[in-house]
Every structure is written in C-alpha cells, then in structure tokens.
Predict the structure.
Amino acid sequence: MTTTTAAHPAAPGPAGGSGDTGTVVSFQNVTKSYGEVRAVDGLSLALHPGETVALLGPNGAGKSSTLDLLLGLRPADSGTVSLFGTTPREAIASGRVGAMLQSGGLMEEVSVRELVTLGCALHPRPYPVDEVLSRAGIEEIAGRLVNKLSGGQEQRVRFALATAGHNDLIVLDEPTTGMDVTSRQAFWATMREQAAQGRTVLFATHYLEEADAIADRVLVLNKGRLLADGTAAEIKAKAGARKVAFDLDGPVDEQALRALPGLTAFDLTGRSVRLQSRDADATVHAVYALGLRPRNLEVAGLGLEQAFIALTEAEEATR
Ligand SMILES: Nc1ncnc2c1ncn2[C@@H]1O[C@H](COP(=O)(O)OP(=O)(O)OP(=O)(O)O)[C@@H](O)[C@H]1O
C-alpha cells in the first residue's frame, strides 16, 4: 500500500473542507484495459463536496483500477478523468487529495513520528504533527520503528499520512483491512468528522456492512461497469428481490415449493423455508394457494450484501 500526499509548495484553495459547490471527481466514459482484460469499461460518474461514497464490487471488479485512474497513477485509454475541474496530477500537486492505496510499503528504518513528520513536511497545507498522530490514534506508538508494527497499526500510520494536511478529497482503498473491530470503529468515527467538515471521502471496501453504515452513496462496480449508484437503501431496492421466510408443519413438498412464482433463491432446511422473491406478494399468495399454513412468516427487504450478490449475478447472467 502506498500513501499519496502532495509534494509541491503551491497551496491554492481553501484550508480545510473544500468549500466548492462544484464537482470533486468526474469520470466521463472512461475505459482502461490491460491486454485483453477491460478493467474499467465506459465509466461515467460525478462526486460532490461532502459526500462519503463507497465503491463496492467483487474481486477484479475494477475498484483499484478506478482509484488508480482517479489519482492519475495510470492513464485512461479513452475518456476523461478530472478532479476539481483539473487533471488528477494538478489536483494532487495542489495538496487537495490524500490517499491510502493497496500497493507498496512504508519507509522502514524510521520511527512513526519521523515518518509522519516527513509526511507533514511534504504537504503544502500540513496539520501539526501531534494533531495528525492523535487523529490516527498512534501517539502511543510514535516512538516505534515502522517495521515493528502490526498490520492494523501500519494501516493507521498510512491513514495518518493520508490526512497529514488539509485535503478536500480523501481516497481510501480497503482502508480497514487488518484492523480489529475497535480500530475500525475509531477509524470510521474520524472519517465521519472529516466528511462533516465538507471533505469528500471515497473508499473501496469488501465490508458491505461498512458501506451500509458509513456511506451516504454506494457505487456498485462489476467488470469495470457501474451496476448501481445510490444510497444503500436504493441499491437494496434496485436489486428488486425480497426475503420470504416461514416454517411448515406436516409433509413438505419441495418440488411444489421450488415452483413458487418469482423465486430468485431457495433454501429448505428441515421444515424451515428461506426464499428470495422478486414478487413477494405473489409468492406468499401461492404458498396459501397450495393449502399450506406457514408459521412465523416474515417478508423483508434484502440486506446490502444480498442485494449486491443479486445485482452482480443478474449482470453475469446478461453477458
Ligand atoms: N497491472 C495489471 N495488469 C494486468 N491486469 C490487471 C492489472 N491490474 C488489474 N488487472 C486486472 O484488471 C481487472 C480489475 O482489477 P482491479 O485490481 O482494478 O479490481 P478490484 O476490484 O480492485 O479487485 P480486488 O477487490 O480483488 O482488489 C482484474 O481482472 C485484474 O486482474
């Protein structure tokens, strides 16, 4: 994982929070291939000041490639990427962007404090070193050598480097990987503070519960394409299906149950039936029409995880 901070003295723009009302990130029909693999496929999106946005997708969906393009680490094959109305390179040079990425290592033979001090020195609009250490919760390990840290502690040091100065956009690629639950909660509390000050936060994650709890907007990627863009609730609704669960008394006719209308998933364990249906009303009516008397009947919306699986499976089925 690398940490990107600006290394140029120019410091235009407001100090802390963007204050912009315009577009922070813009992708217009962006495509990127590696040989035969199309990692990003005609992606268009716009992020606005103060949004906290989760980038979700299965392995290989194109999340890291999208973040690399956004940060100007790789050129797009076609289409336009801009940050704050300029090129990614210019935006980063002006110190408006902080990032935690998945690749690369930290400088090793230095203490945490020395590394954070360097990160602050490189930023055009730095915070005081002690403030950066404290925000990342690493004051107690400030004297330790970086190569003696645990994985979760390293992540916090990377976070400190990504927030060493006043950034308007913070980009995080799976930032809480390796953190324990307490560290993860503390991390997101800090990110919420950053967002509340008007910063835009974009994070890629495999933890759907994090996207559900933290993001006010979720982008679902699959095979480099945007499958869904909305609040977690909108994504769940877009997946269309609902959960239907009930228990049965008496003999269970699995074949008849599998033939219920609208089913997108089916599980029968003993006498417990767990379904997903794109038309829960029709499914439940058909259960009664079979002469069954379901007990403990529950009908509920999908969780984000189930919605995510349903969306990506539907996309696979159309290819
Ligand atoms: N440097 C590269 N050379 C060749 N193929 C690449 C390269 N980087 C990524 N890919 C391919 O591009 C596709 C998208 O990869 P990417 O790393 O962007 O996905 P991701 O959503 O971040 O995946 P993960 O969740 O596993 O990190 C994958 O098929 C991957 O194998």
The pocket of adenosine-5'-triphosphate is lined by residues 34, 37, 39, 57, 59-65 (CB under 6 Å). The chain has a mean pLDDT of 86.
